[in-house]
Amino acid sequence: MQHCYDYPRPAVTTDIVVFTLRNERLSVLLIRRARDPYAGYWALPGGFVEPDETLERGALRELQEETGLTQVYLEQLYTFGEPQRDPRGRVISVAYLALAPLEALQPVAASDAAALDWFEAEHLPEMAFDHRDILALARARLRAKLNYSTLAFKLLPETFTFHELQRVYEIVGEQELDKRNFRKFIRSLNVLQETGETRRNGAHKPALLYRLAGSAVIYHDRQGT
Amino acid sequence: MQHCYDYPRPAVTTDIVVFTLRNERLSVLLIRRARDPYAGYWALPGGFVEPDETLERGALRELQEETGLTQVYLEQLYTFGEPQRDPRGRVISVAYLALAPLEALQPVAASDAAALDWFEAEHLPEMAFDHRDILALARARLRAKLNYSTLAFKLLPETFTFHELQRVYEIVGEQELDKRNFRKFIRSLNVLQETGETRRNGAHKPALLYRLAGSAVIYHDRQGT
DNA sequence: ACAAAAGTGTTCTCGATACACCCATGC
DNA sequence: GCATGGGTGTATCGAGAACACTTTTGT
Q1: Within chain A, how many helices (H) and strands (E) appear?
Q2: CB-based contact, A52 to chain B, within 8 Å
Q3: Whole-structure pTM value
Q4: Could you read off the pLDDT of B124-158 as tens digits, one per residue?
Q5: Segment holding A201, helix H or strand E
Q6: Taking CB atoms and an 8 Å cut-off, how many pairs form between chains A and B?
Q7: What is the spatial distance between Cα A147 and Cα A152, in angstroms, rounded to a whole number?
């Protein structure tokens, strides 16, 4: 069945940049394209928006279908609409930024593993369409928002140590931070709850575990550096 | 002639929030809708994206066609895609934020004056679709960006006095600022050029006129408060 | 006892804020 | 000469940055 309109319409897709921390590296989930155009290249997960879903629902659905992921934090990034960005015709893509702790992302193994992989943001493969640009923007946005929001917590599981949180800021921000200043900074945000639990890692003093108070991303004005 | 596709496609439009300062008030340009849906309501200028133009070009073209405006600063704001936002069917709108000094906007008079008007951001009429939400977001974005960019200058003509610049920050930020601190703040950005000219306004000391060095919006980290 | 990570305070610098007076002009 | 807006400097406060040692645990 064909769908006909009086004027030409672009196709609308979502593309999702899923970031997580893996082996102490900022990493992105990519899918290897089996078909032309760009067969063999790697691409962001995503796909066409359906008639009755919001853009955000569409992004979540595609992510679920293509990667098995669910339970990720999602926010709109930017809309890419260069007429020539897809050789098949006019495709406008609403890009989303997604964040999740690696633990929440094990379902990745449930999908076709050959076609799905994590890549370090510093070592990207050849990418399809303008996906490298989208990724670069997502990374810049994430980095910028660390400094005035609690976005970093979305890369951690529900409970975490102070050191793990600091590593998020260090890895994403690409600079080492002073332990005492960092703790002072985080405490000044008043968003941490002690869980009372501790975690033993090795032959060391056990670390206190914390939890974020509330699940909303909070915006503040201080710098996290 | 009909355009047919294998899957249904949404229509894609741009909507433009044009801000300017008028009578010391932040104001928006709106168009009165002649036809249903929302006949008689006011709406943001905008319209369908054509097959061979970028989203930004489409926004500029619609602005030109509907309001006669050209030479505005434009940046992408957000993409609105609720399935029910337009009663005629699925319409996804890429919203743009536009800024310009009132002087650059006189062409407004060239259009159908009955259907076009400026409204104070504080006193909006009944608006069509989700345009009130779009406008609210645009305003929040503008206000936030004042504090870490040179966006405010886009609301001023090429040359301006220090006091005019301060008024932009005060009106958009909705708070009065100290004259000396404000000058110190602006100077620390190192983006001002003296023109050497002065402007006489009334029975007062003439004010020095400045110009922004370069036309690009610059991002900084200091606060403008 | 020692190796390794957890945890804690103080000092300094610099940007943000508060605040009051003289200057140039038109009438 | 006076009313009006244009223009300038200093003192205080607080956040950001630099910096070193003690504590707890496993082996």
Answers
A1: 4, 11
A2: yes
A3: 0.95
A4: 999 999 999 999 999 999 999 999 999 999 999 99
A5: none
A6: 84
A7: 9
